[in-house]
Every structure is written in C-alpha cells, then in structure tokens.
C-alpha cells in the first residue's frame, strides 16, 4: 500500500480530474439564437425564439417570463413531458405550436407589450442556467 502522502495526492488528483470533466460536460451548453420581435402588430401572432445547444447535457426546463411573471414552462423529463401555460394578460400561448425552443403567442393586444425573458436550465449535477431578455412593443 502507498504512503499517506501518495494516497492524499491521488485523492486530490481524482478530485481535480472529476472537476475538469464537469467543466468539459457543461462547456457546450450555450445560447444559439434568441429573438423577441422588437415590434408586433396589434391582433397578429408572434413567435419568440430561445434556441440553445445542450452540448451533450440533458435539458431540465425552459421557462418564459413576462415582466418577471412566469407564464410558460416546458419540462421534458418524466412521462408525460410537461408543457404548461399560465394565464397572464397579453400572453396567450398556443401550446400546439410551442415547444422547448419556440413560444408562439396568439392575438397580440396592447398589454402584450413588455419584457420577455427566457430561462433555460440543464439537469444535474450542475443545473447550469442561462437567461436572456428582450423587449417587444405593440404597434
């Protein structure tokens, strides 16, 4: 059996390699495209885009917020996959045309105007999250 110093060094080396692997696994998680239309025509439909590359990780959730209030949630794990839209004035979600990377809003009204934020999180062990915000005006 090795000395205490060798065992301690091997333990630190193992921990360092494990941390390096965690960094490598999450390094690919990135935002590819984000689009909240700057202007939307009253009465029209719009599609918000929050496209990402998981870089080999698994998606935990995608959430959309309007003025800091969550109104859409997509969680692919479990069965069945959960896709939920919450009632909020000005943000009528078309669930059939929405998914993890696109959010379709129907019948834009004046109160649809505001800040929209996408929040994407990956699974354990890191639960790394990124957010991006855009502003939409109604004309």
UniProtKB/TrEMBL annotation:
Keywords: Membrane, Transmembrane, Transmembrane helix. Residues 43-128 form the Ig-like domain. The keyword Cell inner membrane does not apply. InterPro entries: Ig-like_dom (IPR007110), Ig-like_dom_sf (IPR036179), Ig-like_fold (IPR013783). The chain crosses the membrane at residues 12-32. Pfam families: Ig_2. This is Ig-like domain-containing protein. It comes from Meganyctiphanes norvegica (Northern krill). The lineage of its organism: Eukaryota, Metazoa, Ecdysozoa, Arthropoda, Crustacea.
């Amino acid at each position: 059996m090795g000395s205490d110093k060798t065992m301690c060094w091997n333990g630190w080396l193992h921990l360092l390699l494990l941390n390096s692997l965690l960094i490598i696994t999450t390094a690919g998680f990135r935002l590819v495209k984000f689009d909240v239309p700057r202007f939307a025509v009253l009465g029209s439909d719009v599609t918000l885009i929050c496209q990402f590359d998981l870089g080999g990780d698994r998606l935990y959730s995608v959430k959309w917020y309007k003025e800091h209030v969550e109104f859409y949630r997509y969680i692919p794990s479990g069965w069945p996959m959960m896709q939920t839209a919450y009632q909020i004035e000005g943000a009528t979600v078309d669930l059939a045309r929405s998914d993890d990377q696109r959010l379709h809003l129907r019948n834009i009204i004046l109160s649809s105007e505001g800040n929209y934020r996408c929040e994407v999180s990956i699974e354990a062990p890191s639960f790394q999250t990124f957010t991006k915000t855009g502003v939409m005006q109604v004309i």
